[in-house]
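It would be a great kindness if you could assist me with a short task in structural biology. The matter concerns a single protein, recorded as an amino acid sequence and a row of backbone structure tokens. The record follows directly beneath this note:
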Amino acid sequence: MTSQNPVFIPGPTNIPDELRRAMNIQTLDHRAPDFVDILSPVLDDLRQVFKTSTGKVITFPASGTGGWEASVTNTLSPGDKVLMARYGMFSHRWIDLCQRHNLDVEIIECEWGTGAPADRLGERLIADKGHEIKALLVTHNETATGVVSDIGAVRGAMDAAGHPAMLYADCVSSLASMDFRMDEWGVDLAVSGSQKGFMLTTGMAIVAVSQKALEASKTATCPRCFFDFKDMMAANAIGGFPYTPPLQLIYGLRASLDMLFEEGLDNVFARHHRIAEGVRRAVAAWGLRLCAKSPDLYSDSVSAIYVPDGFNSDALTNHAYDTYRVSFGVGLGEMAGKAFRIGHLGHLSDVLALSGIAAIEMAMKDLNYPIEMGAGVAAAQDYYRSTAGFTGKKGA
């Protein structure tokens, strides 16, 4: 018997057997002339997931953080002013990365549990009469708080301000799980990774770059070498990498894209919404509350849940792991000790989600949480039963 149970962290996610097999390949020559037949279709098909017809997809052997660094260093210069809102741990980390690259970072502080404040960002852009702000960076799905931001509203505020700044979006924990519309939302750089919605191992940063951002890269002077867009695009154009590529992940991406397209992206998004809604019904039945302040902010890939006063969320996640061998996300930053997270993205079904709900419910009961045993499971079961076979957003 294996001790491996599904993980309920917001990434890396559970890997389907089909994708594990796809990555289990012998070493091949990445400089062989037919490598282009593998690489080029993958890069082209990734554009469908970002929903861009004009953007260029560039990948690097790295996690999503490498994608952040590539985006910043290829399109900005030291001293450039950028505008960011801080409303969670990952928006905070992006701020830190920009500061370390000697950018002039202007921060709009927000309460954790809220999203990107399109109105406040727009007001600041209107006030920037000299257009000193070169880029606005937004975290689409804040993994620490389970909050999804309205990127379209941010673009609308930018357009209303008549501001030429570029728009960057971190979609690491949303792409391939939730709808992302690069062209429609006017996103110039979208950053993701292989280990979440694509259901693969960590190791591939995936960046979609607009033509405007590619033009900016011609004059940007932040130092870069490993993450150079120009070097990577030149090598990709002839079917290769400027250095050794993560071959197994490229094969994995091919298989992942095939799985996503076979299910249909709209069905993938509807499945994630349905599973997430079942988790939210369970949270309500436990009498607990989400970190996200309102339903329009609820993420369909991760739920962050406050524990009651007097309880420590780290003790809960540790107990769930030690006793039931199931992993849940710990609280990060301001959420540390106050909240735990249930990741519900990637390779997941309603039946698997129920196992996670039941496991954390047992762990809470073990630690004398004021919950009724079975209440969360029953609430999720009722919702999943009433929506079985449904691919839309019924009952949301």
